[in-house]
Amino acid sequence: xxxxxxxxxxxxxxxxxxxxxxxxxxxxxxxxxxxxxxxxxxxxxxxxxxxxxxxxxxxxxxxxxxxxxxxxxxxxxxxxxxxxxxxxxxxxxxxxxxxxxxxxxxxxxxxxxxxxxxxxxxxxxxxxxxxxxxxxxxxxxxxxxxxxxxxxxxxxxxxxxxxxxxxxxxxxxxxxxxxxxxxxxxxxxxxxxxxxxxxxxxxxxxxxxxxxxxxxxxxxxxxxxxxxxxxxxxxxxxxxxxxxxxxxxxxxxxxxxxxxxxxxxxxxxxxxxxxxxxxxxxxxxxxxxxxxxxxxxxxxxxxxx
Length: 305
Description:
Layout: H1 11-23, H2 26-33, H3 37-51, E1 56-59, E2 62-65, H4 67-89, E3 101-106, H5 108-113, H6 115-125, E4 130-135, H7 141-147, E5 152-155, E6 164-172, E7 174-178, H8 188-193, E8 195-199, H9 208-215, E9 221-226, H10 232-236, E10 242-246, H11 247-255, E11 260-262, E12 271-278, H12 285-297
Parallel strand pairs: 3-4, 3-5, 8-9, 8-10
Antiparallel strand pairs: 1-2, 5-12, 6-12, 7-10, 7-11
Helix pairs in contact: 1-2, 1-3, 1-4, 2-3, 6-12
């Protein structure tokens, strides 16, 4: 196919194809693209004609892509990224007048501890923009970026999509939180003897602290696991339960009163907090503005020295 032949190709069909590759479902693709299912089905029929291939074969509740679909997707996705970048570079962005919708993924600790000052800055500079915050973590981040459900995320990350970009925002350490009135810091014996609470998105009863304690031949006793940080303060209040949390989360929790933070009675490594974003939007003026504000109000230059 030469360039002139491209005039008969509807770019919208290619967007539908990419969405179907991510969602593997006509229903979910329709929801993602704000279209009706008949429209997606009609687009799929046209795609099959265009590429002379079934593209998707139904297996149970899922639609599995054919080998030809996988081949097309490997070539098409970077091309759509390039088109998106080319178009976005031509667009100006004025925060003061923009009504753009930004979709941001944040881990719970970041949303609780670091989002409020960012919100204040964004509202001051861009009162018309809309923020959609999605809960993420290192497991969810790759899929949310790949599907375009978020354009940028802040969390600890591991594997990311091939075209994603990543930057270290801060290096943080864990702090001990307690609500009791016993004077002085806890010793390691006290720490292990106390009941512990932890924040666990998946409901786990262990974390990196348990790994560090195991190296010392020690254990702790977790008596409470909750899914998010915002209720941790009241839960510790009036008890001898302690919690180990990131330093920026500890600062937000202690600011509300009733809790105090101290150093852990054992050596632990720092951990990195990353900002990751879609490569297709690396040069988008609006997204660059957003990432710069995230860097300013979520990042911590002092921790990166």
